[in-house]
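Before a colleague's protein record goes any further, I have to sign it off. My question to you is simply how this chain folds and whether the tokens agree. I do not need a full report, just your reasoning and any doubts. This is what I was given:
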Amino acid sequence: MLAFGSQKLSFSVGARIFHEGQPTDGGFVVISGEIELLQARNGMEIVVDVYRSGDLIGEMAVLTSNKRVGTAVVVEDCQLMKITRSAMHRILEEYPELAYGLQKKITDSVTSFSRGLEPVGKKMRRSDNS
């Protein structure tokens, strides 16, 4: 079902698959290659995640409409399978056991994001006390 509801794409080194702030229309499964997710911080782009074969990029984007949290850049020629939101909804209806794995991936992402915010919160509390 995933094969019928997805599109296979190929990208070369240096290609930008999507850009930070763009509206989402689905996610990507990495078939081969390597992709870095960059975020703009203090006028620079920093690597916040790396995706390799078998990884899902944009786990929230396959469930709900939002904006891309970073820019995906190919660092090793890759093949991806693009999964639209509507295809993912059909797959989850048909195979509800897959929802557990997706929920775990989302939970891990949110936990990682929260940990990344801890230093920001500490810095803001210090500046409020000044």
Notes: The longest strand covers residues 26-41. The first helix runs from residue 85 to 94.
